[in-house]
Amino acid sequence: MNGQIRGQIAPGMQVDIVLKQDQRTGKLTRGIVKDILTNSPSHPHGIKVRLTDGQVGRVKQILSQ
Q1: Cα angle value 7/49/6 (rounded, 5°)
Q2: Is 16 a domain residue?
Q3: DSSP label of 7
Q4: Residue 64: what pLDDT?
Q5: DSSP assignment, residue 44?
């Protein structure tokens, strides 16, 4: 699943995100969602989340339910 719909993402899920500094290269960072930062129900570039390690980025792929 892609990460454009807020309702598909919940804390505790494993996701791949792209960090702000990696947007040009598209390098993905894997982690567990701690907080969902985007308030709107969807976002064309991916829902912004904070991982348990503190990194913030936009979800590109949801790996686990």
Answers
A1: 15
A2: yes
A3: G
A4: 80
A5: T
CATH number at residue 34: 2.30.30
Within a domain: residue 1?
A: no
* Residue 2 Cα distances to 8, 42, angstroms: 9, 11
The pLDDT value given to residue 23:
93
E strand or H helix at 61: strand 56-62
Q: Is residue 43 part of a domain?
A: yes
Q: With left for phi above 0 and alpha for psi between -120 and 50, is residue 64 left, alpha or beta?
A: beta
Please list the ranges in the chain whose pLDDT falls under 50: none
Instruction: Centre a 10 Å sphere on the Cβ of residue 10 and count the other Cβ atoms it contains.
Output: 11
Domain count, the chain: 1
Residue 19 lies in a domain: yes
